Target: DMBT1 protein
Amino acid sequence: PYYVDMNQNLYLQASLHSSDQNLTVFVDTCVASPNSSDFTTLFYELTKSGCPSDPTYALFPSPRDDVVRFGFDAFSFLNRFPSVFLRCELVVCRHHDYSSRCYQGCVSRFKRNADS
Model:
């Protein structure tokens, strides 16, 4: 566990451990929940499909392509739950494969009306 005060900046780093030096990593989706085994009943989206959902979520420069750094302001669920758990989905791609998901960035999908 990592303890922070409310609204304190929380910084995270994910590293890819592989002998293949030609890989890069991308944060696709991060969801927070007060329950470590249930991220669907009560949850808060920090980012979805590479798009920030929380205004405090930010990506930060990283030293290498196989490392991703991001952060957000610490929060609680209605001040009733003592802990917040994170589940993040990361995507691994070939370095410099600009058609891959890692290089698409934020992908927002809008539903269209069947009439249009």
Residues 77 and 100 are 35 Å apart (CA to CA). The two ends are 50 Å apart (CA to CA). The mean pLDDT is 89. The first strand starts at residue 9 and ends at 15.
